[in-house]
Amino acid sequence: MMTTTLVVHAELRARFAVALAEMYGAEVPAYTTLVEVSRAVNADVAAALRERGAEVDRYGSLERVTAERHGAIRVGSAREPEQVGRVFAAFGMHPVGFYDLRDASASSVPVVSTAFRPVDPAELAANPFRVFTSVLAVDDARFFDAPTRERLERFVEERHLFSEELLDLADRAAAEGGLPAAEADELLRLATDAFRLSTEPVDRAWYSHLERISAVAADVGGVPATHINHLTPRVLDIDELYRRMSERGITMIDEVQGPPAWEGPDVLLRQTSFRALAEERTFREADGSISTGALRVRFGEVEQRGIALTAAGRDLYDRLVAEVDARRAAGDARARVDVARDVWREHLPRTEADLVLAGLACGEVRLVGGAALPGREADGSLSLRALVDAGAVVVDPVVYEDFLPRSAAGIFQSNLTDSGTKDEGAGGAEYDAERLSAILGRPVLDPIALATDQMQRSLDALSAQLQTPVTL
């Protein structure tokens, strides 16, 4: 009997990322420049690390980092998020993390978000493609009055982002772990086309009405289809990338979002972008005539990833961010990143291993051959700190694979031409991971739990190797 060879999730995902990058590069040429500069920075940083005898692959192989991308899309209410989940499941991508952007910046950003990505470390190593997916909070009265909400709901209900053929293929790929070659090709074609910028005319009056509320809302509910809003390469030195892009005449947003650069370990995620570019679009006017104009909604983002934090580490990080805000509000006139650097120096350990040993970050542990083991604790266990101090064990960082709501909102805000409106006197709508899970029809996974479990599996493996419990 002949056996059909499947194109499995990891390969589908890698091909999907490439197809979207080719499409987006054709639509937004400055993205191609961003990728070129990212690759050059990564090669230069890797060469410098090798010269110093430092590990190049500490946060993933250079090949993985250079190929790595995350995309971003925005969808409306009702069936669209559920269908998005079905499409991404075809590529082995699951919703991870709940991000509420509605109050994360001063601008009007009426969305809640998650990120679809692989969750198994082997799948991440094969291809870590992610898509940050925002859902319009149509029922939040702070942004949308009743007539606007009703029209938004009708508008979204009447459009169809994904064909039945695509959804059927996606369901098969998700259930079977992949597809035969011909069907895989068709899945990739249909899925890529679903995120292509639409050429259908935009209703100018309706778009403008939503844009006065929020440019993000207009990009979700004022256009006939969804599209890739930005596509993000990963870089090993985001400050150098920022400098080189600026030298090329690309207008960047005002600052790098997220933690500061400092002499200690990179934590979580740093992001920046070039400013949204004017793109020609077709409009339908009130009298039915067709005209041309421009919209500024799409931009090029870049990211630098650091070590994942535990729940305790994330609590500390949030307190440090609040401390930076408090110092600036109290009169420290320096740039946010300069204040943050001082705060980081005051409160964070200076090495990845110390972060992990303090219970603040997640690491994978590995035994060093030939090193002498330390003595056991009173209960017969081995202390991880003692193993590290003795040089018997090395701690490698678990890479942070997820996002930060304040940084995401900061990127959105920096690329808006207007801050929009928000009626703080009106009642907001309640959203959390449980509600978003119900909307998607699949559980939104906890990123901290995923990283912590990865660390625990590593500790368990070390304990089994040493035939002795190893404790933090």
UniProtKB/TrEMBL annotation:
EC number: 1.13.11.93
Keyword Ubl conjugation: no
Gene Ontology molecular function terms on file: dioxygenase activity
SMART domains linked to this entry: DUF1338
Keywords tagged on the record: Dioxygenase, Iron, Oxidoreductase
InterPro entries, alphabetized: HGLS (IPR009770), YdcJ_bac-like (IPR047869)
Cofactor(s), by name: Fe(2+)
Enzyme class: oxidoreductase
Source taxon at top rank: Bacteria
PANTHER family, A to Z: 2-OXOADIPATE DIOXYGENASE_DECARBOXYLASE (PTHR39479:SF2), PTHR39479
Sequence similarity: Belongs to the 2-oxoadipate dioxygenase/decarboxylase family.
Protein name: 2-oxoadipate dioxygenase/decarboxylase
Organism: Quadrisphaera setariae
